[in-house]
Amino acid sequence: MTGPLAFIDLAEQRRQISAEIDAAIATVLDHGKYIMGPEVARLEAELCDFTGAAHTITCASGTDALVLALLAHGVGPGDAVIVPTFTFASTAEAVALLGATPVFADNEPVGFNVDPASIEAALVVAVAAGLRPVGIIPVDLFGLPADYPAIAEIARAHGLWMIADAAQSLGGATPEGRVGTLAEVTTTSFFPAKPLGCYGDGGAVFCQDEAFGAMVRSLRVHGQGSDKYDNVRIGINGRIDTLQAAILLVKLGIFTRETERRQVVARRYGELLDGVVVTPTVPDRSVSAWAQYTILVANRDEVAAQLREVGVPTAVYYPRPLHRQTAYRKFPTAQSMDASERAADEVLSLPMHPYLSATDQERVAEALCGAIADRARL
Ligand SMILES: *Cc1c(COP(=O)(O)O)cnc(C)c1O
Known about the structure:
- By secondary structure, the chain is an alpha/beta fold.
- The protein has helices spanning 10-31, 38-51, 62-72, 90-97, 116-128, 148-158, 210-220, 242-253, 255-273, 300-309, 338-346, 358-377, and strands spanning 55-59, 79-84, 101-105, 132-136, 161-165, 173-174, 177-178, 185-189, 203-207, 293-296, 347-350.
- The protein binds pyridoxal-5'-phosphate (PLP).
């Protein structure tokens, strides 16, 4: 047997586009416009074409994208924003950073996205706590778009805005459209391990409304007004580097092909692991960006350890829901958080990237079947 597999293989992609990447970087070094160079506007135009969003505002990270979107909505103390508990910290962190209160909702009994019924329950809790609910941030966990039609109905009924945290789902879609257009405002991340990653930090806000887009653009550069030296609101320094924009332009060129390859990899895992573990499902006519391929398995930590021994890396996203983490324990939650707690105990993400071969997937499946059989014998 050969050496350990890669969990996410960025080296293979690098080999495929190295000449183009080197040329793109050289171009930026030659023109010298390191901040807001021409590649930034070009990337924003191409991301509008790719997603179908009316406006794209790139920024320094997926976290900054959330902060910018929340700032543009004027979120502050006394406001409650409903967020899933089973997500990366940024989703709730951005809310808390602005002095508002994240109120945690549980995820669906089957699947890892937020449960619309739990959003309703969290709203009741928020109001009872004397907070003013203003918005909902659904997360497209592991690449699968959340149930936007159901969540939008709740948002409409309560007069709330919605920000889609699509840090993991760029390239995904539902029958309603592509990720970037499924909510009035969407944020994403270009962290290297995300489906569309750069070689550092980066992110973007997508929106349909021109005035909202203009507000985010101003907030991205310290709240600047039409006169650069008259700042009209409090903002941040949230720009993406020109170098990262240039790198993303090259990677966007192969992104559709890569997303298709991820579908093939996911389908193959589904076939290999059917009946062995709980495999992820995608609703009819939806497309996951497959940021992660995450199964549910009992004795997860032992199984993961056994896989590591035979050179199969795995990861646990997430071992603790946010409402169980030190910084977030004090915030309110919906009454029942059982689904997220079960998920945290049993989730295991397998190697997933566009260049994963059938042979390597068979090796993962074989190791997994072996580990589960050994557990069963104990
Ligand atoms: C990665 C991630 C973010 C934050 O993105 P950064 O670019 O790392 O700041 C936010 N939300 C979710 C769900 C993520 O997975």
